[in-house]
């Protein structure tokens, strides 16, 4: 089944001209029993605790050019198109997380203005009788750096995807 | 050319960061069972403390700290990340922690600041 994931990845990445290596692992499949829906909260937020501008910087000419609307339009379609039909399966989702993160990174690279470093975090989990909370904090320059995230849920799995963009002078 | 850190260049040290993270997690949810009322507080504390400790190291990095706390119920969870950055100076580390009733996964990403 994860051949399908590999094919999708290879196809999408070929278009972008980048390479991704997906390693395969031996995994014992987990049994999935009653798929009850319950509350799964995924929160991703950022806060800046304070500046630590001790290091005197020389006047930066480029300072005003950094601007980032929340990581442009988040590649929502990528996530939903990959996961719409899928049922949670350990092997498949293992590959899926890696694949989606590579693909989202490639797409964001295409959209983005230069001088930005990109971090993409993808989580895929099974829906069972559990609760989950995700949080994040960032120490960065609020005027230049930003993030964007998206969550997706179907009857057997949920997925969160977050993209952070960090300006580099 | 030697592959040492020169006086000016610093690259991220995943080992140091993971020690910081482990201590923070232990301090906050060390001996406790999962509680839905408190999990919000926990994630916020873990992330904040980790960030504060990292900043204390005084290195020229921007940080992103991500934390996920999940109740143990037999469900599976997969996480992956993909980063576009300068591999000589930037880095990340992920710490997985668990106790009897919950899992905690904390990821730290450090992006170098140009000085």
Automatic annotation (TrEMBL), chain A:
Coiled coil: none annotated. InterPro entries: Tctex-1-like, Tctex-1-like_sf. It comes from Cyprinus carpio (Common carp). It comes from the Eukaryota. GO terms for molecular function: dynein intermediate chain binding. One of its GO terms (cellular component) is cytoplasmic dynein complex. GO terms for biological process: microtubule-based movement. This is Tctex1 domain containing 1. Belongs to the dynein light chain Tctex-type family.
Automatic annotation (TrEMBL), chain B:
The keyword Ribonucleoprotein does not apply. It is found in: Chromosome, Centromere, Kinetochore; Cytoplasm, Cytoskeleton; Nucleus. One of its GO terms (molecular function) is dynein intermediate chain binding. CDD domains: DLC-like_DYNLT3. Keywords: Cell cycle, Cell division, Centromere, Chromosome, Cytoplasm, Cytoskeleton, Dynein, Kinetochore, Microtubule, Mitosis, Motor protein, Nitration, Nucleus, Transport. GO terms for biological process: cell division; microtubule-based movement. Its main location: nucleus. Pfam families: Tctex-1. GO terms for cellular component: cytoplasm; cytoplasmic dynein complex; kinetochore; microtubule; nucleus. Homodimer. The cytoplasmic dynein 1 complex consists of two catalytic heavy chains (HCs) and a number of non-catalytic subunits presented by intermediate chains (ICs), light intermediate chains (LICs) and light chains (LCs); the composition seems to vary in respect to the IC, LIC and LC composition. The heavy chain homodimer serves as a scaffold for the probable homodimeric assembly of the respective non-catalytic subunits. The ICs and LICs bind directly to the HC dimer and the LCs assemble on the IC dimer. DYNLT1 and DYNLT3 compete for association with dynein IC (DYNC1I1 or DYNC1I2). Belongs to the dynein light chain Tctex-type family. Acts as one of several non-catalytic accessory components of the cytoplasmic dynein 1 complex that are thought to be involved in linking dynein to cargos and to adapter proteins that regulate dynein function. Cytoplasmic dynein 1 acts as a motor for the intracellular retrograde motility of vesicles and organelles along microtubules. Probably binds BUB3 as part of transport cargo. Required for the efficient progression through mitosis. This is Dynein light chain Tctex-type 1. It comes from Sinocyclocheilus rhinocerous. The gene is LOC107737243.
């Amino acid at each position: 089944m994860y051949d399908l994931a590999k094919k999708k990845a290879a196809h999408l990445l070929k278009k972008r001209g980048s390479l991704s290596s997906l390693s395969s692992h031996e995994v014992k499949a987990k049994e999935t029993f009653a798929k009850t829906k319950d509350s799964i909260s995924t929160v991703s937020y950022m806060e800046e605790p304070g500046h630590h501008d001790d290091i005197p910087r020389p006047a930066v000419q480029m300072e005003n050019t950094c601007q980032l609307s929340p990581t442009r339009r988040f590649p929502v379609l990528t996530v939903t198109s990959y996961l719409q039909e899928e049922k949670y399966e350990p092997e498949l989702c293992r590959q899926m997380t890696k694949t989606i993160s590579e693909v989202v990174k490639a797409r964001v690279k295409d959209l983005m203005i230069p001088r930005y470093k990109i971090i993409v975090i993808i989580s895929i989990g099974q829906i069972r009788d559990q609760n989950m909370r995700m949080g994040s904090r960032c120490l960065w320059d609020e005027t230049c750096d930003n993030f964007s995230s998206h969550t997706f849920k179907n009857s057997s799995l949920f997925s969160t995807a977050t993209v952070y963009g960090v300006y580099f002078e | 050319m030697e592959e040492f850190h020169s006086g000016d260049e610093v690259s991220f040290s995943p080992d140091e960061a993971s020690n910081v993270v482990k201590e923070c997690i232990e301090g906050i949810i060390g001996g406790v069972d999962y509680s839905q009322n408190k999990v919000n507080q926990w994630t916020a504390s873990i992330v904040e403390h980790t960030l504060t400790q990292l900043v204390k190291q005084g290195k020229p990095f921007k940080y992103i700290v991500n934390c996920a706390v999940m109740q143990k119920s037999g469900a599976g969870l997969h996480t992956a990340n993909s980063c576009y950055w300068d591999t000589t100076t930037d880095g990340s580390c992920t710490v997985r922690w668990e106790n009897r009733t919950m899992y905690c996964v904390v990821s730290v990403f450090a992006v170098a600041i140009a000085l």
